[in-house]
């Protein structure tokens, strides 16, 4: 799939969520962004995920971490109480759990004849401990689409008895 992500506008080349009718596409890592993040930078209020420009009259948002300008057309985090902003790549550097995608959901890929089940089991190991594509441990930290993911997150095909990382090609 080669399309632009509705959250960050980067090109989508691997696994993504999308609607062909609406032409709406999201990277996996954008789809699993948490709605709010408590960060030590702002001890009193959480940074909230913003999907559209804030109606506060400001046209300029600067990331408090990398100090780069944030384009308000794309998703970012903001604390309305402190008027602080953060780009997702800075505030979400490591994810241990994914809250907004249901474990056990089945996804179809053109490159595989069976549905692949999304599985996430932090702190436990899969029945098969290695990815059948790259042969590295499933539970290892992975750098995927600009973010680190830790824990056991991947796809499983029950019929073929295989496990795959999110970022490995689907057989």
From TrEMBL:
SUPFAM superfamilies: Cysteine-rich domain (SSF57889). Keywords: Metal-binding, Repeat, Zinc, Zinc-finger. It comes from the Eukaryota. Residues 113-171 form the Phorbol-ester/DAG-type domain. Pfam families: C1_2 (PF03107). One of its GO terms (molecular function) is zinc ion binding. PROSITE patterns: ZF_DAG_PE_2, ZF_PHD_1. This is Phorbol-ester/DAG-type domain-containing protein. It comes from Camellia sinensis (Tea plant).
